[in-house]
Fold each of these.
Amino acid sequence: MAHLGYFREEYVRRRGWLDDRAYGELVALCQLLPGPASSELGIAIGLMRAGMPGALLAWAGFTLPSAIALVAFALATSALGPSDLRWLRGLQIVAVAIVAQAVWSMGRTLAPDRPRLAIALGAACVALVAPGAPGQVATIVAGGALGALLLRRDQEEPSRLDVAIPVGRWVGAGALAAVGVLLVGLPLLRRLVESPALDAFDAFFRSGALVFGGGHVVLPLLRAAVVEPGWVTEQQFLTGYGAAQAVPGPLFTFAAYLGAVLHGPPGGVPGAALALVAIFLPAFLLVVGALPFWSLLHAVPAAQAALRGVNAAVVGLLLAALYDPVLTGAIHSPSDFALALAAFALLTVARAPAWAVVAVTAAAGAALAAVGR
């Protein structure tokens, strides 16, 4: 969820590629799709900005830093446990400030009146009581239903997203069909062709396609895919998971580490590349497939009202995430809370760039850890 705050700071506030309304609708779409929501959002922004090459480059830019770090870690050694990185504390704390800023700014834009504020607060309550993907999907659907009932405007003119969707509906339908074909066809092909690479591709593709909620939700699927068949040991799996917590980027890049340490072929860098492509391919196809049809909703006034409710619900989901896991996972002492407030002030009052706030907070977190505060 912290990635949503970083994305908004970069692409809405600083670059102006999207407005808050379009950004909120993209967030809602990616929350409804299976797979890693933050990666899907990056792919969607790249697609809307520069077509298919933009989508590919956006995915690569967001994914490769953590993937390269994890592959380097895997190749260096598989015997070390998770590193005790003091700067990780500062990165966790600055995420509180980034998400808080996103909640505040998006709330003012997407929940400016009492009905939408009520939807946002209700969505936050539901998300906290029923965490996980089912609660998120139910919250977004309920927000849309309430919006359709409560947020209709008299003599409303149909509108569309302020940015074009450079993908036709036939291409979108083909991408959605490709997901279904691969889900059904890969297991059948594995029975006909003996190939360790094909086995690994199917396992990682299935893990990426069948998980709702992204992030940590994929871990049980990945463990079943690589540990139970004996491709990766339990110790290697846990070590890689610990390393994945110490690098920026989407947790799905954990697959790159697993592909690099696979017993037998492909393994190494080829295995990492195969695993990385396979686990993210469903997300890429789903975004390309869903965006052309998502834009059709903007021609229907009732759908516009529903989207206003969905946007308010997205603010509520982000508010819930600000509390759990961002706040509860990062703030453990008064000094942590003070550092989070300072980072929030740097972002909102001093209007410091996000990268500078991250650097300052990481250094301060390391200093606090060093003195035992």
Amino acid sequence: MSSDCSPNRSSFDPLLPPSELISEHSGGITPEQFVLMGEEITRHSFIGHAGITPESKVLDVGCGCGKIARPLARFLSDGGEYHGIDITHAAIDWCRQAYESVSNFHFHLADIASSRYNLTGRVSAENFHFPFDDHKFDFIFLGSVFTHMLPGEVGNYLSEISRVLKPEGKCLATFFILDDEANDRGRDAHC
């Protein structure tokens, strides 16, 4: 593995999911946007701001079909490690198959009940236990995961993140908050 996270410009990229999987699990974006967003987040936020190295151990909560995994596969060395976790069977199944030859990349199904993504889930997000040892990760990323959660669920995830993050580790979580203030601003913008 090299420490370059630049795109693979070949006509066939085995780590690029099918368009329909990208659209369904990455907010309706195109494959080109999928590639560019993953590379920009990795370069700017993970490497530039969080300072991950090729030897870092990274947890991607809500990994979907690998938007972050793809550029990290070119960046992390054999000494680094990536774990992606998601509640969507199709995304995890695709990633397990696509990354099967990348020995330090692992994808985990979180069998969490969801009316949109996992109707047969056996546990609630409020009671979900991250399947990792304490203090394992240097960096944890959640891309808009909290946007879809209720306060009790967020509280549990924050507790689990605290447990599996190394004491000197870093976490980046992006999310939208829709409250009265945000709603008022939205109404004002349309006046």
Amino acid sequence: MPTPVLPILLTVAIGYLLERWRPADVRILATIAIYVLLPALIFHSLLTTTLTVRTALPLVGVNLGLLLSIWLIGKGVTLARRYDRRQESYLMMTTLFMNAGNMGMPVALYAFGDQGLDWAVIWVLCINTISNVIAVYYACRHIGTQSQAFRTVLTLPTIYAAAVALSMRALHLPLPEFLGDPVQLIGRAVIPVSQLLLGMQLAKVRAQVGDHLPQVVLPNVIRLFVSPALAFGLVLLLGLHGLAAKIAVLMAAMPTGINMAIYAAEFDARPRLVATAVFTSTVASFVTLSVLLWILH
């Protein structure tokens, strides 16, 4: 097993065992990660990275193209199998949105270093902004509260952290030296914390995994195999190359986002099925990502 995957597996396992031994309210840890650690990482990365808007645009293009491609596949499956709205929502939630934060950023850092993390941050910023609109829409559209999706996005500090960082870059305003190290340290803390949090959340959703394994095969295949294949095609189409291309394919291969299980439970959008897809795709991804990293290297 490649070394980038092994430390992540160990840290996730610690979080999993901790939750099984001493159950805790993971919402507190999640709140710290989402509202403090991740914004600090995005702010510091965007402010100090050597990447420019021009160089980052192709990666954003791959991200958007991938979402559109998987959405079209989901629509095709929905029509072919005559899914109802809840079935369609389940398929979209488990295939469109990957675990770019808890899994993607640590893998990118361990496999490709700080520059890999910089590219991963661009991907996370893009996917998180979009997913918190579309995912909540699909989770709650059957109860008619879609406006919550937009309110959710507006409460996320990552957007404002990115806006401030980009504004400071545009105005050539450096971060005061006495703030640089604390902000970087706080931001980097999201890497181990997100892995522990993933393990703890997996321990919770494990209890919801029932006799649904046959129904998660298709979403898992799309998320773990079709998605990176599509990303590879988009990389070639958009002329992305080098480390950025590797990060695009790597991030596209991440398992179903853990937040999908949270949204499904909150809005009663087939929560057991979504939890099963999250759990099984995450476990399977330790193997598929190992193979993919071997290919990318």
Amino acid sequence: MSTIDERLDRRDNALNLIRIVLAAFVLVEHGLVLSGAIPERRLGDFGLGLLAVGGFFGISGYLITASRMARSFWIFALHRFFRLYPAFWAALIVTAFLIAPTAAAINGSWDVGAAFNYVLRNAPMVAGGVPVIGDSLAGSPYPGTWNGSLWTLRYELLCYVLVGVALSVPYLRRTAWAFVVAFAATTLAAAITATVDMGGGTIRQLTVLLPYFAAGALLYKFRASVPSRAILALGCAAAIAMIAIFSPTAAGVAAPLPLAYLLMYLGSVVPRPIRRAGQVNDYSYGTYVYAFPLQQLIVIVGGASMGWLLYLVLSFAATAIFAVASWHVVEKPAMNLAKRLGTRKLGVVS
């Protein structure tokens, strides 16, 4: 019986392609909200977007744990910094100095001081950022934020830090129980906060997302023991569907492990000609950070008035352009720089 470790090749898999699909799911749900096709969802509603974000965190839990196990702390930190921050900063700058003034020229106002404030206040990728740029969203249906996707990134960063620090302890690297306890603790925290109406606050957001990351890390630790079978993947898919239909508030409690398993299985069985679409170029991050502000702009210029389907088509087309540019102009060069720095400056192979 094949295991996850045997079937999911570290380099030849479909996980990047799956992340692009997950980013597209987020785009669709945000588009349906921004265009007015569906009402705004709360965090506990377990919509398509939250499920996709959970999938992102599950895949990250698996891959980031693998990366930390294979690298020293400083090489790991270097790689994570250059993977996360340069493209994020570029998206902030493009939003503040290109997308926002274009929108303000149609409706609202924009000034350079507010644009710089938006970039600088959000640049650390922590709580306390600025969601808007002056009055550049004035009159739009969703004026509260230019980029409603960025809130998850600080939790992704937190997960990187936790993994980087925790796995610096040799005992925690060796013992499987540490991973079991981490998953159990985050699941318990999610269960507790799910029983209390905490709205979309930081604690609720954190406890919803952490179990997904912990589930991916757990699967990585047990990858040599967990079987990779279609029947188990189908069972996980059925479990997720049942959660979505009958208990949406249990999203952070019952869904993380089935979703992580399902995605790891799909990552190993997608045919090679298809999976290659995401192996060379990874457009998922660019899709994630640019979709929302571009969708806001399309609404402002009247794109939503043509119907939600055409609006989504326009959103995909515009986002694809920026995602491709993000990868080739910012993300890929940044990753190459991280590799060079890790080899030449720190004297180790990354």
